[in-house]
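Sequence, structure tokens reproduced for reference:
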Amino acid sequence: MAYKTFISYKYSEAKELRDRIVGALKDDARYYQGETSESPDMSDRTTEYIKEKLKDMIYSTSVTIVVISPNIRKSNWIDWEIEYSLKQIKRGDKTSGTNGVLGIVMKYNGGYEWLRTSITNQDGHTSTQTNNSYLYNIIINNRLNQEPKEYFCEMCKTVDSLQGSYLSLVDEEAFLKNPNRYIENAYDKSKKLNHYKINKSR
């Protein structure tokens, strides 16, 4: 099933990946609510004007895809877009739901080690460590926040990469091969908010 989606990304370094994500959605791209290559340039507009336009794009969506790129924290908008996606916003007699939110990690310098490294635990299981210095607090605080935690391995306290966090991180290559799997996962979690400790503030 297709869901209305919004893509949050840093234009100067992730525009090409944004276009590939939209392309990977194929027929479901018609449900995409965010910017495209044909969107008008708003760089000369006021902050309030841009916020109102972004609110209009995000309000009716169900899933927000966040492109995790090396300079994401230099964006003026991404943490605000995540916050708006997570909050329930009332307009007239309608209230938006909390979006499912998914992070797609950009491949950089040939891999993903700039953000995530794999380690082998004492029991032989492999887990991933994330360098949080690249991430906004609103991303960090919505990871590993399943309640109660369901450990994949009780001994090494590892959790499932998709179910263990409300905001899961997925490498761009994995997402582009099967976008529906990850979008469905994000949407499903948005219908099980009581299973996660959601942080809706920056």
Observations:
- Residues 50 and 70 are 23 Å apart (CA to CA).
